Sequence to fold (438 residues):
Amino acid sequence: MDKIIEMLKASGADAWEIIDTKTKGWEFYFIRHRLDQNRAKDVEHILVKVYKLHGGDPAEGAEAAAAQYMGVASTEFSPTDSPEEMKKAIDSLVYKASLVNNPPYRLNTPKTAVPLENPLRPLSEEAADFIGTMNRIAETDTEDLNSYEIFTNAVERRLVNSEGIDITERYPSSMVEVVINARKDGHEIELYRLYDQGSCDSDGLKRDVDELLQFGKDRLRTKPTPALGEAPVVFSTDAAVQIYAYFLDNLNTAYQVRHLSPFVIGSPIAEEIRGDRITLESVRVLPGSPENFAYDGEGAPIRDAVLIEDSVPKEFVGGRMFSQYMGLEDAFSVSNWRVRGGAKSADELRTGRFLEIVEFSDFQVDSMTGDIFGEIRLGYFHDGEGNVTPVSGGSVSGNMADNVPGMYLSRETRRYSCAEIPSVTRLEKISIAGAAKD
Fold:
């Protein structure tokens, strides 16, 4: 690091930034419950960015200053690179940055964040908790674990920049990939999930995998999804995160500067709201999250902040470049975020005639257009008379602009990686194209 900093100072770059990430991890690969292989890792990634001013000289007046640009270029260094290789790479970055025409801005300067309590447990303890949890999964003769992979990591991230920032954070980061099998009458399917966690959330992981096994069982007794036209749809799995990410994305300063977001501070995001209002918060600490940070990736302190309150935007967030273009010196990039629950319980939102979808072949919410689209792999059709039928096939489509005024959120919430959202979300204006006619 000292050698890289020395080279950057002598390179002719006008600003620079280094992110040095060291990861120690244990990895386990299981076939059913038999350990197929395991390994330990100790890796380092060094990301270097250089910034170069070019064009007009501000000392020559306002017109010349307006013609000045700042470019950025980046690359990753290997810890084994020689000094000659590093110097060649830095010289190349300075040249490449001189070809990029962004309006000038200044990197973050040192600011003190409130320290976080984010303890690192021994990797042996983390791994034991994950393996023990997977051994407690409630398998049956027809639904069981095909395979799973466990990755437990202890991460040290150091950020240094030319403005004097030198920050080091240490945090746990883990991941579990699970494939389950379900069988019935000679037919067999697989379902897949990836779970991001900080330290092991044993109860949450067991709940999620047990739920996945039930989905596999239900998937083998589905009927074709009926063509319901426009009907309410309930979202109760991780696909719902994309619905709420629409709101977070539209608060981003990059969307604001590029005129991609309709959100305005102090103005409601929808008129005549009939359903629940949205309150979205940035939270520094979210239990179980792999992204409990005091600073964002550019050295800005992360704050607990209400970003949308009762469907009214209160604050924009985002990276340094676009935030400074907007004159927002205290902006930051969000790591963890939370959406508060609504007025009704999950059971109260599961009433009437509706379709609850728990598995998609693909599901997306376009943050720029608000378009919603997804292909149904498993859903439950509630006919409004007490009958529930597992269904598969067909697709859903809609738009957030049509649904925000009348969306409903459960009181109960659930965490998915670094987001905590209502456990059940109900959208009233979704078009359902069936796999077969009624």
